[in-house]
Amino acid sequence: MEPGSPGESGVSDVQRLKLVLGVPELSWLVDRIRVRLERGEPLDGTVTLVGASADQRRAAGRLLGHSPGRASALSISLPELEAVLRRTSVAPSLRAAVEALSGPVRDAAAERATEVQRWHDTLKQARRSRLAADSWYLLWLDEISRDGTITRLLRQGQADQLDQAIAVLEHLPDAGEPAVMRAAQDEPPAVLLTELARVSVGDDAALTGTPLAGLVLRALARREGVPPPQGAQAERELWTLAGVVTDDLASQVLLLNVRAGGEPLGRWMTEAAKAGEPFRITLHQLAVMPVVPLPIDIYVCESSTVLRAAAARFGPESAALVCTEGEPSVACFRLLQAAVATGTRVHWHSDFDWPGLRATDAAMRRLSAEPWLMSADDYRAAMSSGRSEPLRGPEAPSPWDRRLSELMRVSGRGVTEDRMLAELLAGLGPWRA
């Protein structure tokens, strides 16, 4: 029934009702009565309007048939009001009057009960995923159920976003394990972001800057034990940890003096190595032009400052060097896996910070890499120079030397590769052991 028309409300003269109760000066009164009805509260007692205007008082007086008084607060007895409406045949009840003026009254209690049931059903369905065997997944579900995310999705009619997020997580490479727990494989798992979106939800763009992408990234942060990403760069790094490439042209690796077989990419790498020139390759190139790296030993650093200095000082005499430029890219792991498959030994160094420890641990697991200048003694020596900075973010272990992470935790300080340049170069020159 439309507001203002007779029918199920039982009000026969809606126009008359509008003249006595539907005037603007009494809209506050109608609203208060509607709120009580929606909450399932009894229409007894009084409702009060503080600071009522003279027009509101006059309207109330006309409605009740007597002056409501001169106090600053205007109080109206609901039982008295209902009795007036019945006695004057304006409306059979307050509910009928309110519904005739502004439409049917919602049953908020029933709606809430339905919403709660949908919330429980949604969570129950989410827990049926095969990922429910993993603690990170249950922690993510608990987080988004307690912070109102699931409730918001239900209220906005977007409950399918949770189903889609779960589908994406289930289609991830090594869906059940965080990056640092994965065993070394012949080929690092990797999938393009657009391909992942297409396979899991049928839309190539579904994970590019969308609310769905944000929901999935919150889950990945739980899985990898890192804070939720803030900004595009942090999001790309988190996707990379999960084995997802946002752009196979953007996923790159910087190297120096890494010779390789394979045409034409291997030849280009070898020519750059003969000249002692830094060379950058993409995941796309590695995919379409597979190479077989030739060095017996490859050293890995995190900062491009180290690689640049090695090229300038040693040129083609420098040890083969790969630079991760921060979080190792899928392209980086793809190249190093190809090298390890031919018997190459990987020597790994990262910053002395928590992400650096996680990266080193992952490299040891995935590449059987050997820590390079990454012991507790190396950390002490670096700290003795007095060049350090505060550690940030969640702590990480150092399984290869448990003293290291404990020393870092106690000191609360980290050391970047840029501050260890001399020590690192000593291990890359032609006189290295």
User: What is the number of strand segments?
Assistant: 14
Shape: elongated
* Share in helix: 40-55%
Class per helix and strand makeup: alpha/beta
CATH topology of the largest domain: Dna Topoisomerase Vi A Subunit, Chain: A, domain 2
As a whole number of angstroms, the C-alpha radius of gyration is: 34 Å
Low-confidence stretches: 179-188
So what's the CATH class of the largest domain? Alpha Beta
Mean pLDDT: 89
Assess the beta-strand content as a share of residues: 5-15%
Biggest sheet descriptor: 6 strands, mixed
From the N-terminal CA to the C-terminal CA, the straight-line distance is: 90 Å
Strand order in the sheet with the most strands:
7-5-10-9-11-12
Number of helices: 20
Q: Which CATH-level-2 architecture of the largest domain?
A: 3-Layer(aba) Sandwich
Total domains: 3
Description:
The protein is an alpha/beta fold. The protein has 3 domains: 14-106, no CATH class; 109-245, no CATH class; 252-426, Dna Topoisomerase Vi A Subunit, Chain: A, domain 2 (3-Layer(aba) Sandwich). Helices cover 48% and strands 10% of the residues. The chain contains 20 helices and 14 strands. It has helices at 14-20, 27-39, 54-64, 78-87, 94-102, 108-126, 135-146, 149-155, 160-170, 193-201, 211-224, 232-241, 265-275, 283-288, 304-314, 330-340, 354-367, 376-384, 402-411, 421-426, and strands at residues 46-50, 73-77, 191-192, 244-245, 252-256, 260-261, 279-282, 292-293, 297-301, 321-323, 345-348, 370-371, 389-390, 413-414. Strands 7-5-10-9-11-12 form a 6-stranded mixed β-sheet, with helices on both faces. Helix 17 links the parallel strand 11 (345-348) and strand 12 (370-371). Helix 6 (108-126) crosses helix 8 (149-155). The longest helix is centred in the first third of the chain and has 19 residues, at 108-126. It is elongated and about 105 Å long.
